[in-house]
Amino acid sequence: MNNDSVNDPECALRHLLDQVVAEIRETGNRTGCYTLSERVLGALTAVPRHCFVLADQQAWAYADQPLPIGRGQTISQPFIVALMTELLDIEPDAVVLEIGTGSGYQTAVLARLARQVYSIERIPELATAAAHRLSQFGFTHVEIRADDGARGWEEHAPFDRIMVTAAADEVPAALMRQLKPGGRLIIPVGAPYQTQDLRLLHKDEKGVVQSCSVLPVVFVPLIRDRD
Ligand code: SAH
Description:
Blueprint: H1 4-7, H2 9-26, H3 28-31, H4 38-46, E1 67-70, E2 73-75, H5 78-88, E3 95-99, H6 105-113, E4 116-121, H7 124-136, E5 142-146, E6 159-164, H8 173-177, E7 179-189, E8 196-203, E9 209-217
Helix pairs in contact: 2-5, 4-6
The protein binds S-adenosyl-L-homocysteine (SAH).
S-adenosyl-L-homocysteine binds at residues 69, 73-76, 99-100, 102-103, 105-106, 120-123, 126, 148-150, 165-166, 220, 222-224.
Pfam families: PCMT
Catalytic activity: [protein]-L-isoaspartate + S-adenosyl-L-methionine = [protein]-L-isoaspartate alpha-methyl ester + S-adenosyl-L-homocysteine
GO cellular component, one term: cytoplasm
């Protein structure tokens, strides 16, 4: 199954992106997003997903599905990565905060689009492995930290864009505070291991926040370190 991912990753990636583009179009009436921009498509084309999945998952690297990455965590489904990235509308000079680095795959996609990416992962082994992978790709404008991302990254705030790739029962207040006026934040909101609501939030120039519901999704939970 999907031997292409091992023998011909470029062909498998092209096939996957055709599928993702079709799925984006088909779900457009629910998500409000019917197409992928050239920039986002270019970023997805440039990041080889097989380099971010475990050795025993290589055969499925270009299937449109989430995959285990160890420690009970998953790399997101490519369709969801594409949708969340597109909805965030990242401009080339943007400073982006990502919560839930995981494998570093989504981080790499963000790094293709933004001026600077800060990413926080609570499991130190995953953070270290992702940082290593990203440095091998030559990204020098990505910084990864092992911590509870729900507190944000005060030192580098405010951020133009924030992406959270783990499900929270509510939008963490620190992240809302650290979002710039005019900024966007995307996050799955809901109970762990149930269907959650992918939400896109806009903060206007006066600081007023509007939230819209995009799609039902299932993410691993955002785990808070209470202090
Ligand atoms: N975007 C990732 C997948 C994320 S899975 C990828 O492309 O591979 C969600 C990740 O969020 C997991 O690695 C999990 O450990 C992490 N996570 C959960 N709670 C967190 C928290 N409070 N702060 C930072 N990371 C968290």
